[in-house]
Amino acid sequence: MEKLLEINNLHATISGKEILKGINLVVKPGEIHAIMGPNGSGKSTLSAVLAGNENYIVTDGTVKFMGKNLLEMKPEERSWAGIFLGFQYPVEIPGVTNVNFMKTAVNEHRKEKNLPALSAAEYLKMMREKMAIVQMDPSFSSRGVNVGFSGGEKKRNEIFQMAMLDPALAILDETDSGLDVDALRIVANGVNKLKTNDNAFIIITHYQRLLDYIIPDIVHVLYKGKIIKTAGKELAHVVETKGYDEMIKEQEENG
Amino acid sequence: MDNNYKYLGNFTEPKDCPNALLSNTLQNDSHGNFKCRVPLKNTKQYFVVDGMLKESDSFVCSENDSACSNDIIAECTDFANGKESVQREFSVHTRLGKVSTKLSMPKIFREIEKGAPLNINLPEGKVVENLLQIIAIRTNPQKTELKYDINITAQKNSSGKIILCSHTLAEEKFLTAENINIKVCEGATLDFLAMQNEHNLSSHVTHFTIEVCKNATFHLNLITLHGGEINNNIETYLTGEHANCELDGLYLADGKQKIKTEINLTHKAPKCNSLQLFKGILGGEAVSNFSGEILVAPDAQKTEAYQSNNNLLTSDTARATSEPHLIIYADDVKCSHGATIGSLDEGELFYMRSRGINMDEAKLLQQQAFAYAVLEKISNEELRSRLSDLVERRLRGEFTHCSDCSKHCC
Questions:
Q1: Domain boundaries in chain B?
Q2: CA dihedral sign, ordered A205, A207, A211, A214
Q3: pTM confidence score
Q4: Which residues of B fall within a CB distance of 8 Å from A73?
Q5: How many cross-chain Cβ pairs, A to B, lie less than 8 Å apart?
Q6: Distance between CA atoms of B81 and B115, rounded to whole angstroms?
Q7: Which of B356, B368, B370 sits opposite A80 (nearest CB)?
Q8: Rounded Cα distance, B35 and A36, in Å
Q9: pLDDT tens digits for B308-352?
Q10: How far is CA A44 from CA A22, A34, A83, A89, B313, in A?
């Protein structure tokens, strides 16, 4: 099967501090990867680097996305190419309505594909359909982006945006943090509905509970900027019951 | 033509640059008339061309002609017979010492030609449904310096809405000094929106003297889209109990434009409320000075007065200063002020870019969002959307005329 994402020996720093110390990861279409790991292991850094956050500096390694050099691309170009980052802390943008924000985004994507901009009616129809996936009330569309949204509403908004942009690779950074059980189920159901054989997901999470709803094909454990263990979905249960200590010890013994 | 003479801004690279060719006459549309169709059907328009009120029937009014010929309310008196109000001279000089950058307008202190005053009177108890629009145009190249007065009185328990649009229609270095005297009498309500859209060589000084009486409400929206040197002085007095005053302003400046905003708001009577929100977006080498003073007189107890000034700098070379002053002689008041000067938010920009919105568009959205807080205060929805549209096009660096105006002045 063709590779969607291929990360080779990726090193990255922020403010001179090295966070990623040689990541290797291959994601193929149709796969769901989960990345787990203790606090400070570099999970969010990895997602930020993949989305093109310029606060992080890549010092070594390569990232290919659908055969193209991802690291040369601007954040918006990565989005057009099919990368989506679901933020751990979605940003509030007062004064920009959700509808204006997503309409601009969708039309920028369409412009890139040489498609005409959506008419207001077409956009509204699409928006209503996608909002239904995460049971979002249409009244949210006229509110400022994430302004005054609860934690759960913000995460639902992220999944709604993902549905609108239909990415080939979605990276969800701790989408489960701050969610109660009902919101977690809604968000997870949204992801499952959007999953196809052609797209892929990287789910970054601390806990197994999201993985009860979104079943991963492959689970990785990230520690001190490196992937120290890769296995099937059962690895998430090991993490949940035994924690990371044993794996870390094993890793350190192996050098 | 001077290279500086352009309506185009550089907030973003201009995408749409029609030739900014302007004729010196007003004969331009298919009927040979100047036309400004604000989106409200029952608008009554008054044209003040180089300081002279033109009879509205010599121009095309809005669609609903009956609105042009009813009983209201404006008259233009000869200068000799015109009512002279007390506040004649600009108080700019009294404040210059406080302001750190040099916004020099020496000409303003010279005697310059004075146009006839325009007087607008809202009769006692009358609710004026029609929007009154004053379109002040500078067009005569022989008359580049001009001073005129606009006197507005909202009599007891009357209510009305007025917009004032200031434009330049020729490329001369116009200097306009206007006194706008507003009295909102007991129980009256007045909404006043001023839109300033002139070219880079214009200098425009506006001195508002506003009195808000007992139980009266006054709301000012001051939208400064464009102009070489703009100087807005807003002197406001709340003189009767329960007077209510809201002053909102948005100023956009880039290139080498200079904008100075000075507010002196005095609470003379107890139990009055005032609220001020002024926001500015500054790019290029633009300079803005904001100075806002709230003075609460000794017996003005139970005053509530709030002021906020926020500036967004979109370039490294733009400058803004903000000076709030609170002078409080009463002891039972709620007063506050806040001033910020900031740049575009990196976190918001990255969030938008990660959704595929390119950098220019993301910056634009952020600036629109910044401006929105002021625009949303415009009570009339159609006017709000018209102004929002003009602000967006201004920020895009496009030619900011109203899309259906034949003169393309604004």
A1: 43-343
A2: negative
A3: 0.79
A4: none
A5: 77
A6: 12
A7: B356
A8: 66
A9: 999 999 999 999 999 999 999 999 999 999 999 999 999 999 999
A10: 15, 13, 15, 11, 31
B368 touches chain A (CB under 8 A): yes
Q: Is A80 on the interface with B (CB under 8 A)?
A: yes
Interatomic CA distance for residues B299 and B282, integer angstroms = 39
* Order of strands, sheet of A32-36, starting from the edge strand that comes earlier in the sequence: A83-86, A169-173, A200-204, A32-36, A218-223, A226-231
Distance CA A105, CA A246 (A): 45
Element (H, E) at B253: strand B244-253
Å from A248 to nearest chain B CA? Answer: 34
Question: Does the model's ipTM exceed the 0.85 cut?
Answer: yes
CB contacts of A107 in chain B (<8 Å) are: none
The residue ranking higher by pLDDT, B39 or B102, is B39
Tokens representing B86 are 């007390």
Within 10 angstroms of residue B168's Cβ, the number of other Cβ atoms is 28
> 3-state DSSP call for residue A9?
strand
| pLDDT score for B36 | 55
The tens digit of pLDDT for each residue in B248-292 reads: 999 999 988 999 999 999 999 999 999 999 999 999 999 999 999
Asked if B368 and A108 come within 8 Å (Cβ–Cβ), the reply is no
Q: What is the pLDDT of residues A72-124, one digit of tens each?
A: 999 999 999 999 999 999 999 988 889 999 999 999 999 999 999 999 999 99
**pLDDT averaged over chain B?**
76
Using an 8 Å CB-CB cutoff, list chain B residues near A162.
none
Amino acid at B91: S
Q: How many CB atoms lie within 10 A of CB A173?
A: 23
What's the gap in Å between the CA of B383 and the closest CA on chain A? Answer: 18
Query: Is any Cβ of chain B less than 8 angstroms from the Cβ of A102?
Result: yes
Decide: B368 and B11 in contact? Cβ < 8 Å.
no
What does DSSP assign to residue A70?
G
| Res B19: pLDDT | 30
Residues 6+ apart with CB under 8 A from B289: B99, B100, B101, B103, B259, B260, B261, B262, B320, B321, B323
pLDDT tens by residue, A125-169: 999 999 999 999 888 888 899 999 999 999 999 999 999 999 999
Domains and CATH numbers, chain A: 5-253 (3.40.50.300)
Q: Does residue B47 surpass a pLDDT of 80?
A: no
CA–CA gap between residue A96 and residue B15 (Å, rounded): 22
Give the pLDDT score at B142: 78
**In chain A, which residue's Cα lies nearest the Cα of B375?**
A95
| DSSP secondary structure string for all residues of B197-233 | E--TT-EEEEEEEEEE-TT-EEEEEEEEEE-SEEEEE
Query: Strand A226-231 relative to strand A218-223: parallel, antiparallel, unpaired?
Result: antiparallel
